[in-house]
Design a protein that fits this description.
Elements lengths: L1 H5 L4 H5 L2 H35 L22 H16 L4 H26 L15 H15 L2 H10 L6 H27 L15 H34 L7 H22 L3 H29 L6 H30 L15
């Protein structure tokens, strides 16, 4: 961003090019730490349900009749339980080591997803009973959720730089994203057809209360746990590089570990203050991820290649994408914040019934 602004035709942008770097760094930090906060809530939600239903868990997998739990321990207690383990995990700084955990997590997640698909394709109710269209407010939340789901720009350069054959990154990226798109569409469509307005923020919370599907929640939580450090890597590198530049060499390790610990604690506090998985996903996606994914990239292309006689089609495409991202950012952020400040019945807080 900074280098593009330094070479653009506009003198004011060239003079203030460093602010481009600061802006992108800030958005990356907010986005990636937002991802980590969502991971906290996901693991806590599933851990809470597993623990509190353990005494009634059976070997027979029947459809879940009651979504509401009478909580014996607050969800925040489970977040605090996870906290020390995540602090130890983020002390691992080598991406190659983390990639081993990520691979194991991916295998675990795919196995769990296969079991989820096996369940949701059985006895799907008549989809004609579902509403054809939700309200426009729901679409605004969907926009943020969709952008959040596909936003991975913070890890692109980090992963590419650690690859043995970085020239093959484009193939890996396209193949991986294609598979992810297919899985998301299938799981989202079939999941909503199966559970309707009772679909919760995490579909694992809709699974039957039997040992087989309790193990699915456990495996998913383990997978999310091990990928946490990958999402944490980018903002940690940005912040730590600034901090250690201000201390002597003998204090570098202490400063590094202290910042990592403080950041994980900050993420935990944010998750405790706003324990709404669905709305936090939408808020992070609308507020910062849309800027990184839809607003800044076409803007960069315009200011970098405009002097080289860009085609009208490319210019129009970039302008349309930027406008779409800006509108989604403004209205999606507003709607997510509006929903967050509304009083809500926490017995259905993570269900899509909230928005029907």
């Amino acid at each position: 961003m900074m280098y593009s602004l330094e070479t653009c035709p506009n003198a004011w942008l060239r003079t203030h090019s460093v602010w481009g770097r600061y802006t992108v760094s800030f958005l990356l930090i907010i986005t990636q730490l937002g991802f980590c906060s969502v991971y906290f809530m996901f693991m806590a939600d599933n851990l809470q349900q597993m623990v509190e239903e353990a005494y009634v868990t059976s070997n027979t997998c029947q459809p879940r009749k009651i979504l509401v739990l009478t909580s014996t321990l607050d969800i925040r207690f489970y977040m605090l339980t996870i906290l020390p383990f995540l602090i130890l995990l983020v002390f691992i700084q080598n991406l190659r080591v983390l990639s081993v955990f990520s691979t194991l997590a991916s295998i675990t997640t795919l196995g769990s997803m296969a079991l989820i698909f096996e369940y949701i394709v059985q006895e799907i109710p008549d989809p004609r009973n579902l509403p054809l269209m939700a309200s426009w407010k729901t679409f605004l939340l969907f926009f943020g959720t969709a952008i959040f789901t596909f936003e991975g720009v913070g890890m692109v350069l980090s992963l590419k730089n650690q690859m043995k054959h970085p020239q093959q990154f484009s193939f890996v990226l396209y193949l991986g994203m294609s598979l992810v798109i297919v899985l998301y569409i299938c799981l989202g469509t079939l999941g909503y057809m199966k559970f309707g307005s009772n679909t919760q923020a995490s579909i694992t919370l809709n699974l039957p209360n039997c040992w087989l599907y309790q193990s699915v929640k456990l495996r998913y939580s383990i997978g999310i746990f091990f990928t946490y450090a990958l999402q944490f890597h980018a903002p940690a590198e940005i912040i730590i590089s600034v901090v250690i530049s201000q201390v002597s060499e003998s204090w570098v390790l202490f400063a590094d570990l202290s910042v990592r610990t403080a950041l994980v604690c900050l993420i935990c506090v944010s998750a405790i203050l706003i324990p709404r998985l669905d709305l936090v996903i939408s808020l992070v996606g609308s507020m910062s991820s849309s800027a990184l994914a839809l607003i800044i990239p076409p803007f960069l292309e315009l200011i970098t290649f405009y002097p080289e006689d860009m085609s009208c089609v490319t210019i129009a495409k970039d302008i349309m994408i930027s406008i779409l991202g800006l509108l989604g950012c403004v209205f999606g952020t507003y709607q997510a914040l509006y929903e967050l400040i509304q009083p809500i019945n926490y017995s259905i807080a993570n269900s899509t019934a909230v928005y029907t």
